[in-house]
Design a protein that fits this description.
Number of domains: 1
Order of helices and strands: HEEEHEEEE
Strand content: 35-45%
Oligomer: single chain
CATH class: Alpha Beta
Distance between the termini: 79 Å
């Protein structure tokens, strides 16, 4: 039993140092007018972006270690500064925070929730693109 403690401590230190040396990925969005607060990392495996000549749709998931209420406030502030109109917010203890925005006929839904370690933000939107005229 005594030999297991040093091995466990070494394994824990190695795993923590591996996390500390991996730089966080930059937050990004498929749509340039949808800002993402700092401190969130893009989760490519959980996200989907679809672009066709006429439609651009995305479900983008981010993860970080932020307090959910401050994240909700920062998200709203940043989106309103980029011309998004806040339509409504729904808060539940089971599902977190659901925010809905509108801008020039496009809707945006932002879901915020927590698990034991991380806070998640999911941005879902779809846009009809203006067709390009060809001659």
């Amino acid at each position: 039993m005594m030999t297991m403690r040093p091995l466990l401590a070494i394994a824990l230190m190695l795993s923590l140092s591996a996390c500390a040396t991996n730089p966080p990925r930059l937050s990004r969005s498929a749509h340039e007018d949808i800002p993402v607060p700092k401190g969130l990392s893009y989760r490519g495996g959980d996200s989907t972006v679809i672009e066709t000549p006429t439609v651009s749709a995305s479900r983008e998931v981010y993860r970080g270690r932020l307090e959910i209420e401050s994240l909700a406030e920062a998200t709203r502030s940043m989106l309103e500064a980029n011309g998004w109109r806040h339509v409504g917010t729904n808060k539940t203890s089971q599902h977190g925070v659901n925010q809905v925005y509108e801008k020039q006929g496009t809707s945006l839904q932002v879901l915020l929730w927590e698990d034991l370690i991380f806070t998640y933000a999911e941005y879902t939107t779809a846009r009809v693109l203006q067709p390009t005229l060809t001659r």
